[in-house]
Design goal:
204 residues, four-stranded antiparallel β-sheet, 7% helix
């Protein structure tokens, strides 16, 4: 005869357990690195697909990271500015699943930055398309790195589920994304400071 555990199947009791259980995340926070995945490279075509084998690195350091693509349009040589840039990131996310997402890049004086929403443990490919303006040539360049936003490998249902957030032994005023289950540290990581977060469990 099979018996059902009421703490697993009863919603009220399950929420009581969830409120009291949490996971502890304690790690050296990597320094945000502009060209970790790809050092400066020439943008030779309007549409480019970079595979892992062609990257400087394709696996994140010690925690899942949010990748960032930066493309520079060399208008100083007489080129016409582009009108838009879009990037598609494909990789293994913080939960071990293969996924892809397409994001629009933001222009700042002809330097376009496309920041992924999700955190990835490894990158399989990055594809990007430049539209408008002068066609890409050997004077246009790109790099791929990561921001100071990290995946914790935990589902964060609400901001209040991050019970404690410390950086370098002090309270950290970071930013929580309940949509993408990421945490952006308010401090400036240098690779040696420790980030410590207590996150209420969603396993129940």
């Amino acid at each position: 005869m099979a018996f059902r555990n009421p703490q697993i199947h009863n919603p009220e009791l399950r929420e009581v357990v969830r409120q009291q259980a949490c996971t502890f995340h304690n790690f050296a926070v990597p320094t945000a690195d502009d060209n970790y995945f790809m050092e400066s490279a020439v943008l030779a075509a309007q549409t480019t697909t970079l595979l892992a084998a062609g990257m400087t690195k394709s696996v994140s350091i010690n925690v899942p990271v949010v990748p960032v693509l930066v493309i520079t349009n060399d208008v100083a040589s007489g080129e016409t500015s582009w009108t838009s840039v879009a990037a598609t990131f494909v990789g293994i996310n913080q939960f071990g699943d293969r996924m892809g997402e397409t994001v629009a890049a933001v222009d700042s004086t002809n330097t376009w930055t496309a920041t992924a929403n999700n955190a990835y443990a490894s990158i399989i490919s990055v594809a990007f398309t430049v539209t408008g303006g002068t066609a890409c040539d050997g004077t246009d360049t790109y790099i791929i790195g990561f921001a100071k936003t990290y995946g914790l490998g935990a589902n964060i249902r609400a901001d209040g589920d991050v019970l404690v957030s410390n950086f370098n032994l002090a309270t950290d005023a970071g930013t929580i994304s309940t949509l993408y289950n990421t945490y952006t540290f308010g401090g400036s990581p240098n690779g040696t400071q420790i980030g410590s977060l207590w996150v209420r469990s969603t396993a129940y």
